[in-house]
Amino acid sequence: MGKFDFSNNKRLLKLLYGNEDERDTAFGQMWLKTYKYCFTTGKGMGLSREEIEDCRSEAFEKVLKAVDKQKININPFDFLKTTIRNTMIDFVRRKKKDTEKEKEMILDPGFVSINGMPEATKEKIWMAMNTLVPKHNKLLIAQYVYGQSQQELADELGTTRNSIKTETLRARNAFQVQFNLLMKGQWDNEK
Known about the structure:
This protein is an all-alpha fold.
């Protein structure tokens, strides 16, 4: 593969609509050329490396579908960059919406439904949950609020049950430490 010229719109379109080898060459070069753009844009939006790679892959799939339907008649590289940016924006919106929904439905101090539990204790539970790293927070919520089994979580996350079991133990220990500190602070103030 020689140097690829993205300023030549007609050549790029010809490669994209050409035979499979030409198309692979064009997409391979576009993949390499968008690396810095993706990570600069994604980091600016607060995305993790994995989230950026997911968005980048999703954007390439959208572009591939557009090429298959022969809907690209502008510079494909510009089309790809716009698609990447819009995919990341959509991802951030979905992530924000999911986070707000979780906080609203789950991390509300009222989510603990034990009869007679003082509101102050519910508040401490909420505060302790918010001190956990997001991975542990989501793991505890999935198991104890949504009732997912450790095997279901392992299958969903592509890991082993033992890994989920270990992480759950760490999450519970971290929660217990934070909850005890918060409750101790409450009891110290009452004395």
